[in-house]
Request: fold
Amino acid sequence: MEKIWSGRAEGKLAKAANDFNSSIRVDSRMFREDIAGSMEHAAMLSAVGILSSSDADAIIDGLQGILDDIESGSLAIDPEAEDIHSFIEATLTERIGDAGKKLHTARSRNDQVALDLRLYLKGECTNLRKSLFDLLRALYEKANAEKETILPGYTHLQRAQPITFGQHLLAYAEMFKRDLSRLSDAVARMNLSPLGSAALAGTTHPIDRQTVAARLGFSGPCANSLDGVSDRDFCVELLSDLSLVMVHLSRLSEELLLWTSFEFSFVELDDAYTTGSSIMPQKKNSDMAELIRGKSGRVFGDLVGTLTMLKGLPLAYNKDLQEDKEAIFDAFDTVKACLPVMSGMIDTMKVKRENMYEAAKKGFLNATDLADYLVKKGMPFRTAYKTVGKLVAHCVENKQTLDSLPLEEYKTFSELFETDLYEEIALETCVKKRISEGSTGPDSVQKQLDALLKFLETE
Reply:
């Protein structure tokens, strides 16, 4: 296939150089976006009098035929083509003749590439948002079912205070809601059309950028032609957003791995999301969670690689920018693969409520509530804190818990202790007393669930 830039150079590219220069392996997935952009460009050229209506009709019909044939499989994308843009243009010219050569009027591959990428990524964001909503629905259903299930809350991976499993899962829902918001913000900033920037300086032809932008679903054209062809901020922003999605998925994966261990035994993942050992018949490995945790590093690498590629580029277009697509495509592919797996794990996992409750009974998780009990009796908090600390040390030394320690022993630490302390430090009471907004108390958790349900129903 003849290069669309042939003319200035008479020699033929070495095969190694040709293969090195080609991006068809990566950018061929944008054939729909390339054809959509070309159709609107041809229609605009006709509307402003640059193309005859007959030429424009032939181009648009020809492009539609190429699209239909690629989607049906009757036209294979040539792996020897330089890129998807040159492949489609060359195929069009082969099919309709000289009219096909007029399509590139007032356009460069520079703005064509930038246009296709923005269009493609907008579609990818729509698909990703659906997967995030699916995960949020799974979290909602599980959190609603477990809104009264008590387990230890942790800080520093040490048992801290009793919370509900429902609230714990809802914390992740908040993370993924923020991810959705960030994606929406990124799409809004990305939603400008670079088409009409041409190579870098614009064009001498009287084109109508506003109409093309609107017809392609953009809020308007890029304001500066140099920026239009060289801007990849939207790739960095999306990669950053995707990296945060993976951070959240990785954190949740780590918790699943802890919870499914014999040492915790808080949940059991369904067989559909676990594997076994080739030598140890007793093993049930949470490999899907490990893979998600591991793939987070892959997406982070895509972000760092893109930032590094961009940092030294002068205006306007440089061939380095060809590296943007492999990174951004890989990141989207990775996140899209991880999200439904996580949704499935959450949806089908078995919660071991008894084990969670037994764990919450150990580790003096009600110590803060005991200190609050003394505060309500009039003792300064810092004094109450020290008193309860001494009580915990006494219990540890005598192999007792705050629940089992007799009242007469409590009295040796403070006369403020009465029989009502046992009700005050019961796990159910500790949870129920959390009344602040956003807390683990039942009323607060229900409000969080209601808010999440409303979000899912209205967004």
Summary: The first strand starts at residue 150 and ends at 155. The longest helix spans residues 109-145.
